[in-house]
Amino acid sequence: MDILCPLGACLFNSLIAFLLLMMPKMALGQFSVIGPAGSIQISLGGEAELPCYLTPPQSAQHMEVLWLQSTQVAHLYRYGEDQLGDQARDYQGRTELLRDAVTSGNITLEILNVRLLDA
Ligand SMILES: *[C@@H]1O[C@H](CO)[C@@H](O)[C@H](O)[C@H]1NC(C)=O
């Protein structure tokens, strides 16, 4: 029987197959953002934790994380820092992303002194 695939070509073909197998994870860097499963009830004036994390777990340190309330920016994290200048007045001094958690893909937002407008 003839050798249909000389060694060089076989190697090349299997490299392509290998690259294609690797691509979904490597090139696209796919991940999901998982938010709260249901509604969260907090008393007025209390502290709310809105759970959110990346899966598979990975650092969000170099990502842009934007929490919106309707069209208002409740919290913006970009270039490794909170961008407080872009935050809506209603949320100034009331939000927090826990920095240690961001590096493990936990982008849970904490809202202090919960108001009706947070609903
Ligand atoms: C994310 O961080 C919050 C606040 O520290 C914590 O309560 C929560 O359990 C963490 N979630 C995950 C999935 O690690």
TrEMBL record:
GO molecular function: signaling receptor binding
InterPro entries cross-referenced by the UniProt entry: Ig-like_dom_sf (IPR036179), Ig-like_fold (IPR013783), Ig_V-set (IPR013106), IgSF_BTN/MOG (IPR050504)
Keyword Glycoprotein annotated: yes
SUPFAM superfamilies tied to this protein: Immunoglobulin
GO biological processes: regulation of cytokine production; regulation of leukocyte cell-cell adhesion; regulation of T cell activation; T cell receptor signaling pathway
Residue stretches making up the Immunoglobulin V-set domain: 39-118
One Pfam assignment: V-set
Protein's name in the database: Immunoglobulin V-set domain-containing protein
Organism (species): Vombatus ursinus (Common wombat)
Protein's gene: LOC114039830
